[in-house]
Amino acid sequence: MTDYASTRDRVEHYFDRTATKVWERLTSDAPVSGVRATVRAGRDRMRELMLAQLPDDLQGARILDAGCGTGAMAVELAQRGADVVAVDISPALVEIAEERMPENLAGSISWVAGDMLEATDGAFDHALAMDSLIYYSAPDIATLLAGAAKRVSGKFVFTLPPRTPALMAMWRVGKLFPRADRSPVMVPHTTAGIAKALRDVGHGGSLTEIERIKSGFYISTAHVFEGGLA
To answer: Which residues in 73-178 belong to E strands, given as ranges?
Structure first.
C-alpha cells in the first residue's frame, strides 16, 4: 500500500511535530477558541456514539484502540473492564496519553507508538478507530479493514468524513496548497464507496453506517464493519 504508507508518514509528521500542542490542549479541559470548542464537543459526542456500539461490560475483552491520540477512548474502554491495546502513529501523543492515564488503570492499557496493525499483534474482540482513517483513500481503507478482519472477531467501529458538497469543496481547495504548507487532507467517502472497495479487495463482510455527528467545524460519520477472522 504505497499510498497508505506515504499518507501515514505525513500524518505522523503532522501530529508528532506540528500539531502536538494543539491536540494536547484540544483534548484537555483547557479553554479553547469557539471553533475548536465545536470540534471538541463533536469529538466527545462521537466517542460516546462509538462506545455505545460495544457492550457496557467489557470484562475480559481485548480491544484495539487504533489511533488512540491522547487516550480518552482507551481510558473509557479500560474503565469498562477491557484489556486495551492503544496505538497511535504519533509517539508524542502516546506519551501524553500515558501520562494522563489514571493510576488505577495501570496494567489495563498497553500503549504503543506505530502503525495500528504493524505495531500490534494478537487477536482482538473489537477494534475502534476514531478519526484515524480520515486521511486515506477507499482502497487503502478497504485493505486495512480486510487485514484487521483476520485479527478482530467482533466489531470494527470507525469514522470517516462524509462526502458532502461542503467537504468536497474543502478537499479540493486543500489540494491546491503546497504539500509542505498544509496538514494532511481529509478524504470524504460514502459508505457505498467503502463497501465497493472492500469487494474489490475480495472481502465482503458487513458494513453499516451508524450515525453522522456534526458540531460546527466537526463532521464525521460512524461505521461498523463486521467480517471478523476471515
So the answer is: 83-88, 109-113, 126-129, 156-160
CATH of the domain at 107: 3.40.50.150
Residue 197 CB neighbours (<10 A): 21
**What is the rounded distance in angstroms from the CA atom of residue 165 to the CA atom of residue 163?**
7
Q: How many domains does the chain have?
A: 1
Q: At what angle do helices 2-13 and 138-149 cross, to 10 degrees?
A: 100
Tens digits of per-residue pLDDT, 104-120?
999 999 999 999 999 99
Q: pTM, whole model, 2 decimals?
A: 0.91
Helix/strand/coil (H/E/C) assignment for every residue in 149-171 = HCCECCCEEEEECECCHHHHHHH
Q: Residue 144: which domain range?
A: 2-226
Strands (E), 132-216: 156-160, 206-215
- How far is Cα 104 from Cα 95, in angstroms, rounded to an integer? 18
